[in-house]
Amino acid sequence: MFSGKPQGKRPSHRTILLLLLLQTRPSKQRTTTFRFLNRCLRNRTIPMASSIFTHCHYSSSPSSLAFRLHRHPFHVPPTCLRFSFLHSSPASSHVDPLAAMVTESSAKVIDGKAVAKQIRDEITAEVSKMREAIGVIPGLAVILVGDRKDSATYVRNKKKACESVGINSLEANLPEDSTEEEVLNYISGYNEDPSVHGILVQLPLPSHMNEQNILNAVRIEKDVDGFHPLNIGRLAMRGREPLFVPCTPKGCIELLHRYSVSIKGKRAVVIGRSNIVGMPAALLLQREDATVSVVHSRTSNPEEMTRQADIIIAAVGQANMVKGSWIKPGAVIIDVGINPVEDASSPRGYKLVGDVCYEEAMKVASAVTPVPGGVGPMTIAMLLQNTLISAKRMHNFE
Amino acid sequence: MFSGKPQGKRPSHRTILLLLLLQTRPSKQRTTTFRFLNRCLRNRTIPMASSIFTHCHYSSSPSSLAFRLHRHPFHVPPTCLRFSFLHSSPASSHVDPLAAMVTESSAKVIDGKAVAKQIRDEITAEVSKMREAIGVIPGLAVILVGDRKDSATYVRNKKKACESVGINSLEANLPEDSTEEEVLNYISGYNEDPSVHGILVQLPLPSHMNEQNILNAVRIEKDVDGFHPLNIGRLAMRGREPLFVPCTPKGCIELLHRYSVSIKGKRAVVIGRSNIVGMPAALLLQREDATVSVVHSRTSNPEEMTRQADIIIAAVGQANMVKGSWIKPGAVIIDVGINPVEDASSPRGYKLVGDVCYEEAMKVASAVTPVPGGVGPMTIAMLLQNTLISAKRMHNFE
Questions:
Q1: Theoretical Cys-Cys bridge with A226: which of A73, A246, A313, B220, CB 3.0 to 4.6 Å?
Q2: In angstroms, rounded to a whole number, what is the distance separating the alpha carbons of residues A243 and A250?
Q3: Which residues belong to the signal peptide in this entry (chains A, B) (predicted)?
């Protein structure tokens, strides 16, 4: 039996059955049959077999079938099959799997680095405007406990970013073996300090500390990470406004906005349900009137689910988990994953890849964030933005 | 053209195409063809037309096609088509639309009234145990502002329910024109009163009052409604525990548990995203490892989405919105809607119906909650449970 999987994409049931039906038609009549069938499918009506099979005809040569599958299986103007997320509709989306077979589009790259730069420039302008107007400089305090190399790098980058936009950055480096109380003391100090508008505790904390106690100690008005349950609750509730939106999911949505991807009424699938990314991302998409499904480790059919999405936010931390076959043609993909994989050709011996197989995604999707250079730079930009928002709010500065 | 809609159920694309393909086979060979095609579909492989259409044959008589659609379109033992949510799997679920056509099963009725009674009995036992052990009686305070008939009825029912299980009920009836401050005074009074373990503000409040200010004034330890953003935030976050779970969604999940409906890994669709039911219900289902999608007014294809669900929670407040064609055969349906519709035969001139068309659901689903007598009685039972939980927590009573 011949297995029809062009470029690793698996045809949908509808496609398989449609192709088989079309096989029963003489090639000249396939275009009209295809359109006729699509009309029936849209109206959900069952035509009389007689109205289609005026006479039957099929190919008995596998090679010729294979050939017709890889090229245009029948003559239909590609335009009527090609799919764009900007004009998606239930009807048109039905045609996607076929579109996947007959189009070879290459997706747009969503340049997070460029957008983040743009946002930092905007923040720089606002910070100096604020300083000149009321003499206030936004301040961000970062607490780092222990000596994890990656954490140290993140903190250093945040510090650099603050300086680049004119935000004051304070830093507390505590030893690995410090007590919860010592950390809490620093937090209450920053809670009281009027020059501090944002407090950030670098995670993960040493295992002997209670992360909840420590995060809950941060004054909600200074919780620029937006991880406080009260913030999350307000994010989930209609008619409520969170003080801060968590930086990474906020960055994902900002990318969609800056690339004018319409969210309202679109099918969105969030892969992963972490408190830091997946869950708040789903809440944000829902606030923007997307129809949201959350796919996670217990989901029985993640591929089938994900293939329905116009917008995919992948945040699971599994290298290249989302293949081309998971993606609906024309979908927009925000890849939050940053996974190191072995790479002999690289001096470091490894390279960073996302949760989505980039090469395959580029063939099926309409827009994709690269890794690195996609969501990564946005996270820090959003942290700066939250710090600015906090300073403005505390000083009633518009 | 004949439109194949047995009992208002609309066939899926897969069904339409499958039936058409089967029409091309002599009736004797349809069972084998059907199984063969299903195998291909499961494996997502495209068979050679030649391997199916050894020769073509179809009916040219509309009446005979119609006949075969309404009865068994081809001879397959019904057992291999019948579907049960207890053994659902991606593979078996593919067969549903056909099962919908060839089986005439009647769903199990989920008796919320009986379950609520059972829970009230359990609470009664615990309340008296607590009273005997530490002499504490749980107390619920209800604040009613204005003279809405429906609100008055709800409050009266809650009062009755409290008495029935031995919980003290306090009540404050304020006039329609009372000020926000007066309401806030009552709340702070109850906040301080050690004999009050739960405070409930009956909604809706008069339009001149700020609902948020008033609800936020209730001490979170006594927020038995569970509507406080901090509670909702904890509900949304993994590894966090809310103090209280909102009563109606809690009741929905409790019904699933008491009828031992497995939730983990199942597809769940929540219709409606209100702060009071839809949103927290979705969060609860996700906490139980369901794969959750939220359908709302902006969803472009609510029917298609809902038809994928193993578990449906409908909470939109639209009479009979969910038709049989929206339901996957074997799905479990929790209907939160309570909608009055004209009914000449009833002395009151109207009757109450849910968001789901009960008669149609009973033909397709495996279990359905009736309206009334489904979720309704559970809501009050959960309110009593939350009040008991609160009293136990405040007095460290296990």
A1: A246
A2: 13
A3: 1-29
- Asked if residue B272 and residue B163 are part of one domain, the reply reads no
Are residues B236 and A238, on separate chains, in Cβ contact within 8 Å? no
pLDDT of residue B92: 36
Q: What is the pLDDT of residues A24-65, one digit of tens each?
A: 666 666 666 777 777 667 666 656 555 554 333 333 333 222
- Tell me which of B178, B212, B236 is where a domain ends: B236
In a domain, A125, yes or no: no
- Taking only the tens place, the pLDDT of each residue in A368-378 is 999 999 999 99
Any CB–CB contact under 8 A between B212 and chain A? yes
Q: Round the average pLDDT of chain A to a whole number and report it.
A: 83
CB pairs under 8 A between A and B: 235
CB contact under 8 A, B232 and A236: yes
User: Which tokens go with A247?
Assistant: 């930086």
Q: First vs last Cα of chain B: how many Å apart?
A: 68
| The pLDDT of residue B14 | 72
Residue of chain B whose alpha carbon sits nearest to that of A38: B13
Hey, what are A341's tokens?
């994989």
- Paired with B143 in beta bridges are B172, B201
Q: Is the pLDDT of residue B199 over 70?
A: yes
Annotation marks residue A286 as catalytic: no
- Same domain, residue pair B190 and B292: no
- Burial degree of A296 (CB within 10 A; 0-12, 13-18, 19+): buried
In a domain, A288, yes or no: yes
The answer, for A92 touching chain B at a CB cutoff of 8 Å, is: no
pTM of the model: 0.75
Task: State how far the alpha carbon of B393 is from the alpha carbons of A206, A285, B92, B249, B386, in Å.
Answer: 31, 36, 45, 22, 10
- Active-site annotation holds for A121: no
Half-sphere exposure of B77 (CA within 13 A, CB side): 2
Write down the pLDDT at residue B48. Answer: 54
Same-domain pairing of A213 and A288? no
A252 and A376 in one domain? Answer: yes
Where do we find the tokens 């699971």?
A316
CA dist B83 and B96 (Å) reads 7
Give chain B positions within 8 Å (CB) of A264: 298
When divided into structural domains, chain A yields a total of: 3
C-alpha distances out from residue B181 to A34, B141, B148, B174, B185, Å: 68, 18, 20, 12, 6
Q: Has residue A163 been placed in a domain?
A: yes
A294, β-bridge pairs: A270
Which of B199, B134, B136 is CA-nearest to residue B166? Answer: B136
Which residue range forms the structural domain that includes residue B64?
13-102
Question: Which residues of chain A are within 8 Å of residue B11 when distances are taken between CB atoms?
Answer: 44, 46
φ, ψ at B294 (rounded to 5°): -110, 120
> Which residues of B fall within a CB distance of 8 Å from A266?
300
Domain with B226 in it: what CATH number? 3.40.50.10860
A239-258 as b/e: b if 16+ CB within 10 A: eeebbbbbbbbbbbbbbbeb
User: Do B57 and B168 share a domain, yes or no?
Assistant: no
Residue B71 lies in a domain: yes
